[in-house]
Amino acid sequence: MSWLFGYKSQVPQGVPPPPGGEGGDAAGSPGSAGQAAGDQNLTKAERKAMEAYRFDSSALERAAEAARTLERSKHAREALELSKLQEGTRQQEYMAKVKEYEAHIEQSKVEQKRVDHEERRKTLAEETKQQQQRAQYQDQLARKRYEEQLAQQQRVQEENLRKQEESVAKQEAMRRKTVEHEMELREKNKMKLLEAELRAKAKVDRENRDLTLEQIRLKAEENRVTVMESIKTAGSVLGQGATALLTDWNKVATTVGGLSLLALGVYSAKGATGVASRFVEARIGKPSLVNETSRFSLLEAVRHPIDTLKRLKPKPTDALQGVVLQPKLEERLRDIAIATKNTKNNKGLYRNILMHGPPGTGKTMFAKKLASHSGMDYAIMTGGDVGPMGRDAVTALHKVFDWANTSRRGLLLFIDEADAFLRKRSSEQISEDMRSALNAFLYRTGEQNPRFMLVLASNTPEQFDYAINDRLDEMVEFTLPGLEERERLIRLYFDKFVLQPAAEGKKRFKVEQWDYSAVCSRMAKLCEGMSGREISKLGVSWQAACYSSEAGVLTEQMVLDRCEASVRQHKQKMAWLSEQEKLDHKSITGGKGFLPQQN
């Protein structure tokens, strides 16, 4: 429709307008020429202002011409309807745009409200945070002031106490000086009195010297006469008795018979005493080689009656209670414990066991737990006690086995460091006494016994004699704890040596608040290569660290420092091993020799 109303229809300069159009009329009219001449005299701003008020009449002329053309056209009515439809469509589009604009305005209002609400919420949150921080700061200031007041009061009390102690010390020093002075004066008086008495006695002795010598002479004469008379009387009596005895043969025979019976009684009493002592030792006492036992004895009952009464009422215990080992090893040991308990209940033949591995891995502990779980007594001896006994070793070993055979409940005989006297006879240089002790041990363990169970422990099982290996029914290797086992051990001993004493409220033993679980996991990684015994000693060192601190409070840094010190000591001990010791202790590193770790 731009051609109809003259939109954007400007005639280029220098081109003549079409004939009969608005250009010809404009060019031919004198008003237009005058107006063009007048416009040339105006400024640029004035021309722009004038252009805003101009009206192009050619557009109306074209519209009128178009209307006349449409009226003459046979499609005029359709064009008018089409124009109405187009105008209705434009009105609908305009209304849709208006509604869309109104919806956009409403959405903008909603968004603005949401933004305002969010800003208000953030403002309230920030104000709340500021109030909390202000309250915390005020609380900290109040707490600090309170702590300073407490510290000031403590300093005042300490100062008063120090002054009181100084005053008491001064008074005590003055009293001590006074007492010492009094004692010194009293001692001087006593010395003067004693000196005067001695001088008076000496003077009297000098004056009575002749009289004293006469008294001494008379006493000596009387004693000599008395002794001579006694000798004469005894000689006459003995002579008459001997004469009467020798002249009467019945009395001689009676005397000889009495002396013979007396000698027989002495020797009989001596033999009976030996037999009775061996019987008592076998039934009630314990052999000299046994260092520790749970078996009842009269002497132990007298010394510890309460423990003896507790022992008479055994309680069912777990064989692996308090023992931390690898899962496969725990499963195997549990099978051994169940088999041993059923063997004891059914009065079967016990199986001999060898437990080998690095020191401190729980061999002795498990042996005690096994005996308690099975309802048996246990006895612990060490192989190092056999060698120094020399010839008496054979007799001592026989006493141990005789004593073990008298147990009614069954005895678990645990021999620690058994390789000390059970070495190979073919390659090892052993003495005759040690060889005899080994032969006696082989003789007493040739067959399985329903009375006692033999459990050997060694760090170097490859040194055993072949005959000893032939008598073993089960061999169990105790290895160093892994990461999980070390963490379990550290948690166990941390609870035993730190948390339980702190919970009992013992003096000078408190624990600071920190993440115990994370620290135990961290220490488990640091303690690689350490045995269970070394980890238990680490628990004791935590107690020592707490007791040695000024405040008696165990902190996280103290625990970690003790752990790192134990790790350094372990590495130093391993570095001190000689080449032969490294070869003998192959079990520590699983047969790969020993390589100490570097710091």
From TrEMBL:
Spans through the membrane: none
SUPFAM superfamilies: P-loop containing nucleoside triphosphate hydrolases
GO CC terms in record: mitochondrial inner membrane; mitochondrial nucleoid
Molecular function (Gene Ontology), one example: ATP binding
Mitochondrion among keywords: yes
Keywords, sorted A to Z: ATP-binding, Coiled coil, Membrane, Mitochondrion, Mitochondrion inner membrane, Mitochondrion nucleoid, Nucleotide-binding
Protein name: ATPase family AAA domain-containing protein 3
Lineage: Eukaryota, Metazoa, Ecdysozoa, Arthropoda, Hexapoda
Originating gene: 6039815
